[in-house]
Amino acid sequence: MAKFCPTCGKQLPVENAEICPKCGVRVQSPTKSPPKQSEGSKIGLYIIIAIVLFVGFIIVAAVFSYVVLGAGFFTTQKAQETVYKGGAQETVYKGVEQSAANIQMVGGVYGLASNPSAGINEIRFTIGLAPGAPAIDLTKMKIVFSTPTTVPIILTQGSIASTSVFTSKRNGVTNVNSMNPNDQIEISFKTSSLKPNTKLNLELRPSVGAALPFSKTTPATIAATNLLY
After folding, report:
1. CATH superfamily of 97-228
2. Predicted local confidence at residue 30, as pLDDT
């Protein structure tokens, strides 16, 4: 649609002309470009965005850490309560008490042979408690025994020694079911014939406290009584 000058009435050459070519009167104000955003406002916006992202990261990290720690706590509890039956392992640990009740070896480990030419058929050694450790229920203790050529065997406490039962005697004389501070308990159990230079792996696992693993080797020449090294 044609546009005319409001002062002289002459038709403007273009619709959006700002000045009338005849009378020189300004017809409309010049088009204003939108104000440019200052550098300061841009920096402020960037800072706000960075703060929001940082706070969000902290919140997510805190939630993730809580979840991981909680999962680890319950997983550890379940692992401590798990018992492997019929295999070579049995785990029964009870938190802080594990570091308080420690079994110690007293003297050497001996292999006895009723027929030396056939090999060692009995293992015997003495154990005690570390200073300050509480008493241990020997009826709940397990002994895991193995050699490089045999599967691990779990022995339980009893009154007659066999390849699956160990005896526990105070000072090697009286059968007992518990080990108290200052006690020296002799442990004895039977084995299949062990030949010279055979490595033995043993692990004592009390119901409370840390397990005591150790390894010994039969001597090159088997006698009736042998100190394993």
Report:
1. Immunoglobulins (2.60.40.10)
2. 57
